[in-house]
Amino acid sequence: MCGIVGAVSPRNIVPVLIEGLKRLEYRGYDSCGVAVHQGGELRRARSTSRVAELEANARSEEIIAGTGIAHTRWATHGAPAVHNAHPHFSAGPGAQAGASGRIALVHNGIIENHEELRSELKSRGYAFASQTDTEVIAHLVHSLYAGDLLEAVQRALPRLRGAYAIAVFCR
Ligand code: GLU
C-alpha cells in the first residue's frame, strides 16, 4: 500500500512533502516522487530508490515551491521504474508523452477500467509515457478541465471503476 502527501504553504513545502513520505516509508514502496508548481510550470523529481535519494534529487534539481504533491508507489500496473513512478502529468492532446503541461496527479489503488479509458484517450490524441492506470486519470481529468479543477475531478470520478485515492493539482 502506497502513500500520498500534499501541501500548500506560503513557504517552500518540499521538505514537508519529503518528511511526509519518510513517515510513510514503513508501509513499503518501490519508487517515489514529488511534483510542485514552480515558476509557472509543473516540475517533478522521481526515484526508484529510497526517499532519501528523492530528497537529494529534488535538492540538486532545485525543486522549491509552495504547492505540491508526493507519493510512494507500490506498483500494480507497470514495472517499478522511473517512468511509471508518480506524480503523472497531463499536458493535453497532441503533447509529447510525459510533458509537464497542466495536471499533476498521484494515485493509490487500482483503476479496473484503465484499458478502456486509455484507448478512448489515445484516440483523442493523448500520449502515454507510462504503463500505469494512474496516467489514465491524469489525462481524463485534463480532458474534462474547463477552468475549474474540482469540477473536472468530480466529472472524472464517475468514469473510474476500482478502489482508489488521488491527489491532484493544476497549473
Ligand atoms: N496502480 C497504481 C500504479 O501501479 C498505484 C499503485 C499504488 O497504490 O501505489 O502505479
Blueprint of the fold:
Blueprint: E1 3-8, H1 14-24, E2 31-38, E3 41-47, H2 51-60, E4 67-73, E5 88-90, E6 103-111, H3 114-123, H4 134-144, H5 149-156, E7 162-170
Antiparallel strand pairs: 1-4, 2-3, 2-4, 5-6, 6-7
Helix pairs in contact: 1-2, 3-4, 4-5
This protein binds glutamic acid.
Residues 2, 73-78, 107-110, 132-134 line the site of glutamic acid.
Describe this structure in words.
The chain is of the alpha+beta class and 171 residues long. The protein has five helices and seven strands; from the N terminus they run βαββαβββαααβ. The strands form two sheets. Strands 1-4-2-3 form a four-stranded antiparallel sheet, with helices on one face. A three-stranded antiparallel sheet has the order 5-6-7. Helix 1 runs antiparallel to helix 2, helix 3 packs across helix 4 and helix 4 (134-144) packs across helix 5 (149-156). The model has no long low-confidence stretch (mean pLDDT 96). The chain binds glutamic acid (GLU).
In short:
This protein is of the alpha+beta class and 171 residues long. It has helices at residues 14-24, 51-60, 114-123, 134-144, 149-156, and strands at 3-8, 31-38, 41-47, 67-73, 88-90, 103-111, 162-170. Helix content is 29%, strand content 29%.
- What is the straight-line distance between the termini? 28 Å
Give a short account of the largest sheet: 4 strands, antiparallel
Spatial arrangement of strands, main beta sheet: 1-4-2-3
Radius of gyration (CA) equals: 15 Å
Mean pLDDT: 96
**Poorly predicted parts:** none
Bound molecules: glutamic acid
Q: Can you give the helix content as a percent range?
A: 25-40%
> What is the strand content?
25-35%
The SSE order reads EHEEHEEEHHHE
Number of strands: 7
List the total number of helices.
5
